[in-house]
């Protein structure tokens, strides 16, 4: 992949998604989380197993996440939901990644996680990967409430959180094109993590490949 065509020197902050971004989709970890979501919807909220896939697709498409949809259309205990869904043995799936640590450490920009998950879960993932100390903060589902990616209000809140008034000085890295296109419409630069390129988005297969499209440089 060729480097980004924009003037990279203006980028001061890296906003990085969590699931299927800081770790590759090939790890098989996200399906474990998805299974926990389905289990909660069935066992705690009474939805039939047959209807859950269609329900989750509807909520995801309309509200950005299953949780935001449940909050809008059903009565759900948010903390109970998050605790149940994220109650997984992360260390069984994710281990320390020294090469990823070195890659991220080569960037002098401030780094923040920007996720639709919650902070407790995000911290556990980052610790398992051994990269937690590289991030200045975590923008989570509570930070952006009542919004989430890809709502434009979520990006506005994220910029306020990091104290940035110029969106073009930020680079957002995510595995979902719709989140990235929303970021670009807000003025934030964007890079996709995925196997297949998407028109208009520089693409890398995994986060460790970031230098291929966005070489490190010193922020003055």
Secondary structure layout:
Elements: E1 13-16, H1 30-43, H2 52-63, H3 66-73, H4 78-85, H5 98-105, E2 110-114, H6 119-129, E3 137-139, H7 152-162, E4 170-174, H8 177-185, E5 189-193, E6 203-204
Parallel strand pairs: 1-2, 1-4, 2-3, 4-5, 5-6
Helix pairs in contact: 2-3
Written account of the structure:
The protein has 220 residues and is an alpha/beta fold. It has 2 domains: 8-25 and 94-212, Rossmann fold; 30-85, DNA polymerase, domain 1, CATH 1.10.150. 37% of the residues lie in helices and 11% in strands. It has 8 helices and 6 strands, in the order βαααααβαβαβαββ. The chain has helices at residues 30-43, 52-63, 66-73, 78-85, 98-105, 119-129, 152-162, 177-185; strands at residues 13-16, 110-114, 137-139, 170-174, 189-193, 203-204. Strands 3-2-1-4-5-6 form a 6-stranded parallel β-sheet, sandwiched between helices. Helix 8 (177-185) links the parallel strand 4 and strand 5 (189-193). Helix 2 packs across helix 3.
The CA-CA distance between the termini, in Å, is 27 Å
Percent strand equals 5-15%
Strand order of the largest sheet: 3-2-1-4-5-6
Structural class: alpha/beta
> Which CATH top level class of the largest domain fits?
Alpha Beta
- Return residue spans where pLDDT drops below 50 for at least 5 consecutive residues: none
Task: Give short descriptive properties of this protein.
220 residues, alpha/beta, Rossmann fold, DNA polymerase, domain 1, six-stranded parallel β-sheet, globular
């Amino acid at each position: 992949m060729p480097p980004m065509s924009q003037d990279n020197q203006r980028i001061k902050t890296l906003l990085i998604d969590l699931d299927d971004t800081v770790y590759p989709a090939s790890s098989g970890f996200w399906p474990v989380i998805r299974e926990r979501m389905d289990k909660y919807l069935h066992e705690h909220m009474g939805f039939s197993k047959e209807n859950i896939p269609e329900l989750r697709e509807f909520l995801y498409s309309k509200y950005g996440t299953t949780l935001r949809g449940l909050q809008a259309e059903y009565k759900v205990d948010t903390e109970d939901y998050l605790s149940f869904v994220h109650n997984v043995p992360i260390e069984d799936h994710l281990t320390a990644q020294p090469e990823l640590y070195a890659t991220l450490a080569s960037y002098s920009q401030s780094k923040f996680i920007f996720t639709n998950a919650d902070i407790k879960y995000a911290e556990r993932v980052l610790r398992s990967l051994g990269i937690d100390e590289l991030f200045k903060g975590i923008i989570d589902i509570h930070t952006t409430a009542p919004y989430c990616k890809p709502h434009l209000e979520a990006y506005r809140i994220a910029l306020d959180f990091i104290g940035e008034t110029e969106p073009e000085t930020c680079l957002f890295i995510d595995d979902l094109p719709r989140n990235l296109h929303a970021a670009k419409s807000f003025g934030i630069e964007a890079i996709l993590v995925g196997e297949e390129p998407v028109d208009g988005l520089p693409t890398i297969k995994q986060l460790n490949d970031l230098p291929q499209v966005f070489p490190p440089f010193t922020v003055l």
